[in-house]
Description:
Layout: H1 2-14, H2 19-43, H3 56-60, H4 62-76, H5 81-86, H6 89-93, H7 99-118, H8 125-128, E1 131-132, E2 137-138, H9 143-167, H10 173-185, H11 189-193, H12 202-210, H13 212-218, H14 227-252
Antiparallel strand pairs: 1-2
Amino acid sequence: xxxxxxxxxxxxxxxxxxxxxxxxxxxxxxxxxxxxxxxxxxxxxxxxxxxxxxxxxxxxxxxxxxxxxxxxxxxxxxxxxxxxxxxxxxxxxxxxxxxxxxxxxxxxxxxxxxxxxxxxxxxxxxxxxxxxxxxxxxxxxxxxxxxxxxxxxxxxxxxxxxxxxxxxxxxxxxxxxxxxxxxxxxxxxxxxxxxxxxxxxxxxxxxxxxxxxxxxxxxxxxxxxxxxxxxxxxxxxxxxxxxxxxxxxxxxxx
Length: 254
């Protein structure tokens, strides 16, 4: 247990020694802060210009998903690629840790930083939910925000696991980031591109099932939790973690 905790601590603290992590947080908070300002204005706007749900504008905006698309590859590109390029992966594999413990420790550290990145956005909630301090009540149903954060937590786990698997296959951090970015596009591009299709058609239904931004536009952002999307995020994340473990095991036999 102690070696696992030490590895988690080592991986988590490594983010704070890299300028990339600070750039990611700064850009992310700048974009979400701007969208938060627009959300406050539109929540109070009359007529069709307004919005009905607190997080609706944030998770439906193309700028948000363009920034979100780059975050997991940048956070995961160094997890194994850096170890392989520096030659420290062999040393890590000889440590008193099983392969699944190494993978899980790196994933937990990466996911903890992802959660840390979202914590400042909790300061937006009292305003978005019209929180009344004297009565401790919300003027807007908080479940819509809770469902949105649940979706972001699970979708983030999926993209991080995907990026970590790619990082375990290559030596270059840049290559790992680009490959992870390309694979992540499969789950995002239709939400950014917004093709004009028949919503009842088979092609659209397939795109809708795999397109994360559409999940937030139609479900999570409105307070609806669809178990099919939870299964998608969870199954892809578990599959990528399993493949990462197999990738490490194959390296032991080389």
